[in-house]
Design goal:
Bound molecules: adenosine-5'-triphosphate, magnesium ion
Number of strands: 10
CATH architecture of the largest domain: Orthogonal Bundle
Order of helices and strands: EEEHEEEHHEEEEHHH
Radius of gyration: 17 Å
Structural class: alpha+beta
CATH superfamily of the largest domain: Transferase(Phosphotransferase) domain 1
Distance between the termini: 47 Å
CATH class of the largest domain: Mainly Alpha
Low-confidence stretches: none
Number of domains: 2
Strand order of the largest sheet: 1-2-3-5-4
Number of helices: 6
Length: 203
């Protein structure tokens, strides 16, 4: 199996599972933790991520199908999304720019409507395929979100845009507009996100 990424928490490999192209995401053991605590943490995080990926899909957001989870090895086997990272696709000149940004806003609204916070909304955690955006990497996500949590989600996305796509900042309101159109409480959350931004800057 080919290793795609070796991060601090997880290792991502591409492989084949019963004839399908899959991604295997494994949480690597940390030797600085007591072995029992380490196993339990990796296990809980694996289950949490797999559950959120499934719930997001049920909420109407494209996410990889989960084929299998192996809690003893802290592994998730999921559908390989054969596309490219939104991070590499978003350019001022891309013809589908506006529709991608609107879709992003709509999907985040769908997540938040079901109380799901992603926790790491960046354009590296989104894959574009056939004009749709797949959301991945729910490892920092949670369910039962407060307005503050959802505001943080939007605020972090804006920060991610500031660093990865500064030339697209003028387009950011398109995401928020679509978000508000698809979520009754959207206005309130956008205001919260702006407040969080101001707080960050002046404290
Ligand atoms: N289902 C998938 N299909 C295609 N590519 C994927 C898939 N899952 C992950 N990838 C690729 O692997 C990269 C890393 O995956 P992911 O974001 O889940 O891990 P990570 O950022 O290391 O996670 P963590 O934040 O839990 O440490 C993604 O940016 C993407 O390029
Ligand atoms: Mg990631």
């Amino acid at each position: 199996m080919d290793i795609i990424k070796r991060g601090a928490e997880a290792e991502i490999r591409k492989g084949n599972w019963l004839g399908r192209d899959v991604i295997v995401k494994s949480r690597v053991p940390k030797t600085y933790r007591l072995p029992e605590l380490d196993r339990s943490l990796r296990n809980t995080r694996t289950k949490n991520e797999a559950r959120l990926i499934r719930e997001a899909r049920e909420a109407g957001v494209p996410t990889p199908i989960i084929y299998c989870i192996d809690t003893s090895n802290a592994e998730i086997v999921m559908e390989f999304i054969d596309g490219s990272r939104v991070k590499d696709e978003l350019e001022l000149s891309s013809p589908q720019l506006n529709s991608l940004l609107k879709e992003m806003g709509k999907s985040i609204a769908y997540l938040h409507r079901q109380d799901i916070v992603h926790g790491d909304l960046t354009t590296s955690n989104m894959i574009v395929k056939e004009d749709r955006i797949w959301f991945i990497d729910f490892s920092l996500g949670s369910k039962g979100a407060s307005i503050e949590d959802m505001g943080v989600d939007l605020h972090l996305l804006k920060e991610a845009f500031q660093s990865a796509h500064p030339e697209l900042l003028d387009k950011f309101p398109l995401i928020l507009k679509s978000y508000m159109e698809h979520f009754e409480q959207g206005n309130k959350i956008v205001q919260k996100a702006e407040e969080i931004g101001r707080r960050g800057r002046y404290t």
